[in-house]
Amino acid sequence: MAISLTDSAAERVKSFLLTRGHGIGLRLGVRKTGCSGFAYVINYADGPEAGDAIFEDRGVQVFVDAASLGLLDGTIVDFVKQGLNEAFRFRNPNVKGECGCGESFSI
């Protein structure tokens, strides 16, 4: 099992945590929703929760709940800027399809 970050994603997390003044990493998960079945949930983590798998990449800890772990195994988290927009993007090898709006995916 593995979750990894690009340099851009790791730098974004580090800079946000520094500005925020607290937190120890990134929390990544999925929830059932949307037209394709699942959507990513991403937040900053203040600490581990019971059952979390913990990964570290490029100096950033990534926390994933047990229910999401199998759906996210092998995912690469990126951070992209396009004009005035910026967002985390996910390269998940488990995804079989995505909805047209890009908000949800199926496995």
Task: List the domain count as a whole number.
Answer: 1
Secondary structure: number of strands: 9
Give the name of the CATH architecture.
Sandwich
First-residue to last-residue Cα separation: 17 Å
Q: State the share of residues found in helices, binned by percent.
A: 10-25%
What's the order of the H and E elements?
EHEEEEHEEEE
**Backbone CA Rg:** 14 Å
Low-pLDDT residue spans: none
Top-tier CATH class: Mainly Beta
CATH topology annotation: Hypothetical Protein Aq_1857, Chain: A
Largest sheet: 4 strands, mixed
Query: Which percent band covers the strand fraction?
Result: 35-45%
Tell the overall outline. Answer: globular
Provide the residue-averaged pLDDT.
88
What does this structure look like?
With 107 residues, this protein is of the alpha/beta class. The protein has one domain: HesB-like domain (Hypothetical Protein Aq_1857, Chain: A, Sandwich), CATH 2.60.300. The protein contains 2 helices and 9 strands. It has helices spanning 7-20, 66-72; strands at residues 4-5, 25-33, 37-45, 53-57, 60-64, 76-82, 85-91, 97-98, 105-106. The strands form 3 sheets. Strands 3-2-5-4 form a 4-stranded mixed sheet. A 3-stranded mixed sheet has the order 1-6-7. The longest helix is centred in the first third of the chain and has 14 residues, at 7-20. The radius of gyration is 14 Å and the shape is globular. The two termini are 17 Å apart.
